[in-house]
Amino acid sequence: MKIRFKLWLETDDGRPVLGKGGINLLKEITLTGSISKSAKSMNVSYKFAWEYLKKVNEILGGIDMKKGGKGAGGTILSEKLVDIVNLYEEAQKEVQNVLDKYEKRLNEILEKSD
Known about the structure:
By secondary structure, the chain is α+β, with helices and mostly antiparallel strands. Helix content is about 60%, strand content about 15%.
């Protein structure tokens, strides 16, 4: 038996901003500097990735999207946004560690014979 969770950031009024997929997209952009390459790597459309990043940028800021095309343009994340990505991943690991402990206890209970 497993215990699962999903972690995301949302606005104070409950609008989702960033979850696991968005974090992965931002990490991929950090590596490639390109929305197009990142979208392709993650098997999502460029339009989906661009619209998602536009929403994140409107709420959090920190995404510098330069228009271009082949050999021009590019996307850069601010230090603040990189810090948010790192914080999300740190929280993800910490919560998973706690849940692993409870999952172990759950399975011990389930393995007991009645």
